[in-house]
Protein 1
Amino acid sequence: MAVKKFMYVNRKAPYGTVYALESLEVVLIAAAFEQEVTLAFLDDGVYQIVRNQNPKLLGMKNFSSTYKALGDYDIKQLYVERESLIERGLTEDDLMDITYEDEGDDWAEKSSLTIVSRAEMAALMAAQDVMFSF
Amino acid sequence: MSMLHIVNKSPFERNALASCLSHASKGDAVLLIEDAVLGAVAGSQVAHLLLSALATQAIYVLSEDLAARGMEPNRLVKGLQVVDYSGFVDLTVQHDKNQSWL
């Protein structure tokens, strides 16, 4: 089977709705199919990967640590839209350290996050084979 | 490779339409369904977004959703195209992929 480029587009903040958690679960399932998986974080989706999330007092599971495990599932292309961060008063420093181990480089730990402009995000979308929207 | 972008949220409540239009590529198509059709009315606050997008993208509006909301097709921003459910199906076939802006 030919490898296809799958993009998961995340545009919602976590906890207020179930979109973020559902997206993460579908991504983990998709990881088993050995396709080229990319995650996009734009609009309120950037809040999904912000540091220091603590929904315990809401009685909700803190699933933010799961993003850090994506590298173990060979998902290492997470694109974050710069304009969406700026519009929300956020910077790259507000985001969690999400990394993968590069087997082609003696398992060196590298960041999975790439900050891109809105125009670059549009080009990434255009280059995909399949889109999943959340 | 072209994409069909499907928007279903009112542009007066959510930024889905604006975000969609700022990420759509030249030659893509945009289809407004459900509450998104409300933004297609001429004179709406988002009409200018649709007009500038029409230079590079075709924009379609689902007739059944317009009718349900009491909007006649002649009320729409000029240049928008009205399609029915079977036209919706045709659009999905004509484009390589689709993306929903929820």
Protein 2
Amino acid sequence: MELKAVSFSYGEEEVIKELSLDLSNGRRVCVMGGSGRGKTTLMRLMLGLIEPSSGKVLRRPDERPSVVFQEDRLLPWYSALRNVSEVHGPRSPASPAELLEAMELSDARDKLPKELSGGMQRRCAIARALCFGGDPLLLDEPFKGLDPDLRGRVAQAIIKYSRGASILLITHDEKEAELLGCGEIIRL
Amino acid sequence: MKAFFKNRIVRKLIAAAFWLLVWQAAAWAVGSDLLLPSPPATAKALIALCGTSGFWKSCALTLLRVFAGFLLGMLAGSLLGVLTAVSPFAGELLSPLRSIVKAAPVTSFIILVLLYLSSALTPMFIAFLIVMPLAWTNVAGGILSTDKQLLEMANVFGFTRLQKLKSVYAPSVLPHFISACTAGLGFAWKSGVTAEVIAHPAFGMGKSIYESKLYLETPELFAWTAAVIILSFALEKLVVLALGRAVKWN
């Protein structure tokens, strides 16, 4: 996926201005910026949920990104395991149970999202994105609600199970970019 | 003592006993079973009715008519709800029909339907007619209020249509559907029995209520009404119990 001089406006207000970004060949890019600087808009542009006002978003025809949304977006009627299993397919790097184990959620696999803490729900959303096996992997504040020790272990699991996929990390915290080994930081 | 009143069953029993006492006091004050039968007189009449085959036949046929009308109404209403939720044009085209059915007096429909259907089928059709718009509104509302973020997630993760239906839409609509079921059952009983009062099928609880009134058998009138309430309550509990298991997340 590649963005070429992409701009996006909400009415008169331009939230993204001529942004270029290359997420091909396993690159890991971090996008930083305060609230309202267009980080989530950028994610939506990359997913094709909105169209840029100008510029281009180039995608491979077979490209299917994996996502951790800013909100967890777990299906509230399904268990943690079922939420992950829903996206399991031939490109999945491991079984849903193994991915939940990597996120240290084995004991909570049969619990409904409402029975999980905020941090556990976040890890479940990460396990689902990894299970989908898409490339690139788009992560919108994936470590929100996780304590520092856990962030390191979750980052290692993301690197392991994303199997060389390109990663776009959206965060407020530069340390998280280091955890995922992002080679490029873009500030909005 | 506080713990005693905190028990839900105890509270319900106390409420029931209170209203029975109010009823009994009112019956004493009136002093005539013809105008207001007492709870024991009503119970006596109900026990006497239970010993007749006509009572059970009437109960069974009314139950059948009401439940069949309710099921058909839920089915048709749900289909229309899906259709109008996915097609704005269908919504615009069909919404006057829903508004008319909801607003028109049920007695007008009963009298009109009697011109086309037999007296045995009219109560079922009326129950259907009353339940249908309720299911229609609730199911359409449930579909339209499905969480857009979950739908977006499903699209991004490549859910198939069937998967979206099964994993996103159906669980979202289910609470609305159950709400339509509980409200619809009550309306189906009320309208179905009212239709029997007017249509006079060979057997039916509504017809028996009318005859009790005609022959000034007020304790029997109360006994039949009590039987309708008991059956309606039992059926609602059964349906809620069956459907409630499906929404344990909520």
